[in-house]
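hey so i finally got around to running the thing on that chain from the lab meeting. sorry it took forever, my laptop kept dying and i had to restart like 3 times. anyway pasting the input first so we r on the same page abt which one it is
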Amino acid sequence: MTAVVNPWIKAYLESGTVPALPDGHLIDGKVVPSLSAERMEIADPGTGHVFMSVAAGGAADVDAAVASALRGFRIWRDTAPVERGRVLARMAALMLRDIERLAFAETVTVGKTYTESCNNVRSAARTFEYYAGAPDKLQGDSIPLGPAQLGLTLLEPLGVVAQIIPWNYPITTFARGIAPALAAGCSVIAKPAETTPLTAVMLAQLLCEAGLPAGACNVLLGLGTVAGAGLSAHADVAHITFTGSPGVGTAVMTAAAQHYASVTMELGGKSPLIALADCDIEAAADGAVAAIYENAGQICSAGSRLVVDKRIHRALVEAITVRAGRITVGHGLRGSSMGAINSRRQMERILAFLDQAKTMGSTVAFGGARHVNSIDPDGWFIQPTLLDDLPIDHPCVQEEIFGPVLSVQVVDGTEDALRAANSTRYGLMAGIYSKDIGAALALARDIKSGQVTINNYWGGGVEVPFGGVEQSGFGREKGFAAVASYCRTKSLVAKVPYSQNARV
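ok and heres what got predicted. didnt touch it at all, straight out
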């Protein structure tokens, strides 16, 4: 067990209580209760026990948040671009200053390990740092219309935008949506998941400290069916960025369509990690383990399918199994290498997939059951699991499990690997391991996916646009493509006095 150095962790593990964390919405720069006084309980996935409650917003809270954001938008839109950039830069520094507090709150609500949470804070700070350079570089174009007309395009912020944030990566998803929206000059209302509400409020407080005007970033807590649905349907919300399941995404799009709001959809995934026959088996094994067991597999872009050539199938599965056996499962604050599942409901859903696979006679090469931790016996833990040699129509190949379950598909050659990779209705991410870069690039060209990496599954960063195709959604986050989602183009044409005889 690692030594406890974070004072927040020390106090929590000793007392089981969490002092001084925000428990309300953040509206107009202040933490406030729900107007209805409704509240909802928050559980620690690592213990399975409730440790605090927070505000649960209703229709009146939605209206209050939007009204505040409209006021904040008028101020923030007219703030000099260079100053908008400075606010975002200060935000990055403040996040690193408060990394211990933010990482603690991320771990105790999500269930991931403290190390993963610290990395998430650093990644999110880098996101604000990246977009700090954007506001004074959002330039329109001049259009050649001849000497008698002047043609220009202007980039304008959309207005009030909503961010519906998932429970698996609350800090990084907050940053990747809110930073580009603020860079564009929009105001933002964040609606975090009901199980992981704390860090959104904490980050919004830091934005206020960084100099963001009151109302330019509000946080609305509550159930998705109430607060999230209310934001999606609100006539004054110009754009909605949603990360979550395809089913809920469809509901958000339907609500947004009623008032012609634009949307960015980052939905489910069943991403393949493809290991060709010539790949470095040890590197591919490292990549596969990182791709599926980080955050206990609760990642939209997790490499949840291993598409492996039959010539290296046995060697690669054995290498992954050895690595999986080294993973320690337990509470994220106790030094484990894999943490908890975020909710009992999600844990039971994953276990149902595993039970179905066993009933179908599937080979469980490793794991395959709930993990019982002696220190935290009520925690929501699942063993790192590997299901070997599954047919293409197997539910664990076709459906997003969203847990630490790697499904293996055995193929014969590159063409067969391509067919297997493209065999689901998703297309969020894919990874390829091969020593033949030409073959890997040809495969990457033909894979149905929004992003492909070669010999490094988690390659890239905030600079690289991210998003899916088909039922993985549409629109792009990260990179400068994200800023474009929060801008509209206005064309301007002016008649210019013109005399051919006057021109020198």
